[in-house]
């Protein structure tokens, strides 16, 4: 990922409607499926922690270690005094069964050998530990934003389940369904006319009022996702448990 992309992410991920809405959904499902009724603090590994916004809310749940491939991303995180290290998800430098929870929010698509990364996650999780992740959905939604973000792929429910073979699936659903028709139409038009997105991709500075409205619309899905699985969406969310061996 380019240096100016991390700068944009650092400036945006605490206020931009997409980051904030996604975080509300992640937290709501986490409360429902992951950390509800936990009587002890969790030991958490946050893979691909970016510039650190997700570490702020994860740190309330326990002892969090952030890890990112990019030294620049790590530097941004350390500005907020988080415990962060540079590392490679395909070769985690942790002993077996070290963590109660591993999170990877929009990370696996950046990793060339995602299967090796998932194997490493399985290794470092404790028995009955949770792998909580999100990924972009549907290859036909591929856009210039995927190119500049150095994505290797987008996923379907089937391909993600194949990747997570060996885990017990607690929850898997598409999400960001509300904006799916609009995003699909825009991306197909851009492909038809060979248009490129602006240099920062889909994450652009938004008017304060519009930003608030879009966040509320996006985050509204959290009330349904605890009970239902959506049949389509721009992204996938999954909560997988390491099986007791």
Spell out the blueprint of helices and strands.
Elements lengths: L2 H10 L4 H17 L8 E6 L5 H6 L3 E7 L2 H8 L5 E3 L12 E7 L8 H11 E12 L7 H5 L8 H7 L3 E9 L4 H13 L15 H12 L2 H4 L9 E8 L3
Parallel strand pairs: 1-2, 1-4, 2-3, 4-5
Antiparallel strand pairs: 5-7, 6-7
DSSP helix count? 10
Shape: globular
Question: What would you say the CATH architecture is?
Answer: 3-Layer(aba) Sandwich
Secondary-structure-derived class: alpha/beta
The tally of structural domains comes to 1
Which structural traits does this protein have?
alpha/beta, 245 residues, 38% helix, seven-stranded mixed beta sheet
Describe the structure.
This protein has helices at 3-12, 17-33, 53-58, 71-78, 114-124, 144-148, 157-163, 180-192, 208-219, 222-225; strands at residues 42-47, 62-68, 84-86, 99-105, 125-136, 167-175, 235-242. It is an alpha/beta fold and 245 residues long. The protein has one domain (3-242): Rossmann fold, CATH 3.40.50. The model has no long low-confidence stretch (mean pLDDT 89).
């Amino acid at each position: 990922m380019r240096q100016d992309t991390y700068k944009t992410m650092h400036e945006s991920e605490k206020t931009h409607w997409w980051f904030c809405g996604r975080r509300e959904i992640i937290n709501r499902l986490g409360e429902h499926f992951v950390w509800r009724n936990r009587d002890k603090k969790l030991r958490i590994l946050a893979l691909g922690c970016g510039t650190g916004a997700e570490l702020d809310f994860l740190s309330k749940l326990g002892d969090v270690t952030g890890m990112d491939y990019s030294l620049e991303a790590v530097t941004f995180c350390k500005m907020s005094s988080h415990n962060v290290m540079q590392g490679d998800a395909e070769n985690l430098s942790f002993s077996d069964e070290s963590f109660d929870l591993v999170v990877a929010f929009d990370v696996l698509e950046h990793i060339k050998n995602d299967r090796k990364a998932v194997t490493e996650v399985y290794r470092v999780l404790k028995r009955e530990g949770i792998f909580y992740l999100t990924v972009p959905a549907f290859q036909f939604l591929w856009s210039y934003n995927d190119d500049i973000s150095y994505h290797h792929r987008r996923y379907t429910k089937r391909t993600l389940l194949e990747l997570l073979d060996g885990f017990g699936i607690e929850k898997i659903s598409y999400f960001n369904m509300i904006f799916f028709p609009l995003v699909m139409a825009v991306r197909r038009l851009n492909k038809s006319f060979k248009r490129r997105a602006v240099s920062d991709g889909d994450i652009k500075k938004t008017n304060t009022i519009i930003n608030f409205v879009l966040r509320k619309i996006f985050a509204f899905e959290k009330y349904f996702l605890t009970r239902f699985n959506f049949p389509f969406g721009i992204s996938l969310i999954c909560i997988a448990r390491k099986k007791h061996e």
